[in-house]
Predict the 3D structure of the following.
Amino acid sequence: MLIGIVGAPNQGKSTLFNAMTLAGAEVAPHPFTTIKPNEGIGYVKVKCPKENCNPNHGYCINGNRFIPVKLLDVAGLVPHASEGRGLGNQFMNDLSTADAFIVVVDVSGRTGCEGEPAENHDPAVTVKFVLEEIDKWFFGIIKRQWEVVKKRTDAKPSKLLAEKLSGLGIHEAHIKEALKDFKSIDEFAKRLRELSKPFLIAANKIDCNESVKNYEKLKQAFKNNVVIPTSALIELTLREAHEKGFIKYVPGNSAFKELKDMSDQQKKGLSYIRAFFKKHNSTGVQECINSAVFDLLKLKVVYPVQDENKWADSKGNILPDAYLLEKEATALDLAYKIHTQLGDNFIKAIDAKTKKVLGKDYVLKDGDIIKIVSTNSL
Ligand SMILES: Nc1nc2c(ncn2[C@@H]2O[C@H](COP(=O)(O)OP(=O)(O)OP(=O)(O)O)[C@@H](O)[C@H]2O)c(=O)[nH]1
Ligand SMILES: [Mg+2]
């Protein structure tokens, strides 16, 4: 699963990416700082079913389980990128396989559509053009494949098109849905983008003076979408201070604890952040990942175990794995996800919480802890 971070230049995309991953991508107060994409791992945060667990991937603090999610930060899009302006939109191809987008926009009003300094700039205008450019990129690819498929008569067009567009994460079901209300290829491409690449908006730089007013306006303009106020800069500062041992901060929380004596400048920085937390519940950064995974993609967390009594693997590691699975995923899907052999030799599953036996078609619930029994494990 991959979440793409997109937007106009200089909006704070790489800062948000760094705040999520601590990957140290280059950040600067001018457009086109990012040219090559930055790939990293962020974490979705859920309540852990056990206080003490031993994750193979990710980590667990104070009963908060952090499950890894792949993230990609790309260069900024400018108006008419599809006609080659700025860095064009070819780099969007790196995001072909993204399952969802976080569209980052500076809501301080101080950055224009091209990443230039501005005054009272309306962030809704920026988000609208970014979506238009994404649609044009999508349209370019879909139109090419549409022309190819039109000439063929050897299979159902929706099936052929699905094959051609699988690299964009488009399935036949998406195509059938988008064809229901077909008006033009433009509209069809737009609908396919909506279905295969849902997005949320990170209303970034919410720590600046004019931001709250602009954020309210942006929310009105995008009533049907998730709009999350974020301060990538504050989240990054907190996470770095935590890494260096100055503070204890759990991502997504609205407080932190000082652990060491700090310089006057560091203390000043932290009092600025404390004042921020009086006005905001969180920096919004963790919420962006969680909302992308649970609201946009509607995934669920399932913990496979080998020992249904101890909730552990064969070595006694508690809840070693956490899988993010699609809404419809069944016990058999989980078995195949763990290992092909486990799927091929599936006998039954056991709900480790209730010890109930589950069949292969059981649709897993969010938070399920499951043992798979196969012929090999008897
Ligand atoms: N006040 C404030 N500044 C921020 C925030 N996030 C990013 N910035 C600043 O905004 C500027 C641009 O940040 P980047 O992360 O480089 O932006 P970008 O969107 O990746 O830019 P390009 O790669 O050039 O497209 C930097 O000076 C950041 O420090 C925030 O939440 N609050
Ligand atoms: Mg960048």
